Amino acid sequence: MRVLIAIDDTDNSVSRGTGEIAALIADAIEANGWGKPGFITRHQLLVHPDIPYTSHNSAMCLPVEMPEQCLERTITFACDFLERECADGSDPGLCVVVTDNIDSAAELVAFGRRAKQEVIRKEEALELAQRLHVHLSEHGGTGHGVIGALAGVGLRLWGNDGRMRGSLAAVRPGQVLTVRELLEQPDVDSVRSPDGSTVDFAALVRIGDKPKTVMRDGGSVLLVRPAEQVVGGAAWETLPRRMLRDY
Question: At which of 163, 185, 202 does a domain end?
Fold first, then answer.
């Protein structure tokens, strides 16, 4: 079965970030043979004076393919891990969802999208999770991270928000590859321009610094734009990092 695990508010200004905590949970799941994690997405939520956050107010979400019998031990491990490893002063939250068992995916998606635009009370997140039979738990501090954790799951379910944590591992800056070769990368489902149009398989793309994919239509999409300078015959280049901040 497919499970989504999201966490939020696990760090402070000097600790390792929520993305690293999510990666450690993913590594432990795989090392223990509980499941096969997919790539982690970062979801930017509303930045507002009424919302306490460390730096960017972003949640992390990862999918895992696992047998049903491994679900409870995974949840128990994640709960214990957050309580043990999260930074002093953080307000961690954990959300775990079995995608085929969600009573109303549309409500979770709507909650996630609202969390990008509105200040939401913790009580609303807990009430929604209870009604939809979704695991949502607090693991220290005020527990306000449950809002972002639930939103992270909703946004990943939506499939049109967030960007991959880390960079594509099998490419290097300055490299020139065809779109077809890029589609052979395990974390690239499609190559598109920012307006959503696809790029010809034979087109050459120059790899920029720290290329990331973004979530679009449920897939992992590498965004490219017409090259500012044609180098090595590449008429396209990966989107620069500053432009990926919009995702």
Answer: 163
